[in-house]
From TrEMBL:
Superkingdom classification of source: Bacteria
Ranges where the Core domain occurs: 1-100
Species annotation: Rossellomorea aquimaris
InterPro entries: ATAP_core_dom, HesB-like_dom_sf
Signal peptide: none
Protein name stated in the entry: Iron-sulfur cluster assembly protein
Length: 103
């Protein structure tokens, strides 16, 4: 997956403590295909399982599930505006009100 993180998003994500990584996975209970991710989960650093991939972008580490990659067409830009993360790719903005949740 091609993952780009804007400077404003990097600044916010760099506030996450060491030993933690970000997990991006779909809300499988949502019927809204565009806005089915509402949060970036901050979890303890761990290995990925058979349905996940680890993606590095700059100094940031993400665990991303296979369904997530397919939905976003293997290309995602994460931005940070108006106190929320924004997920978009070259074709559209998917969700502009994504928060962080520490698990």
């Amino acid at each position: 997956m091609k993952l780009e993180i804007t400077q404003s998003a990097k600044e916010k994500l760099n506030e996450i403590p060491n030993g933690k990584i970000m997990q991006l996975s779909l809300d499988r209970g949502s019927c809204d295909i565009v806005n089915n991710l509402y949060e970036i989960k901050v979890v303890e650093n761990r290995e990925s399982d058979s349905t996940e991939n680890i993606i590095q972008s700059d100094d940031l580490t993400f665990i991303i599930d296979d369904d997530f990659e397919d939905l976003y067409e293997h290309e995602l830009t994460i931005d940070f505006k108006n106190n929320f993360f924004v997920f978009k790719n070259k074709n559209q903005t998917f969700n502009n009100r994504i928060g962080l949740r520490y698990v």
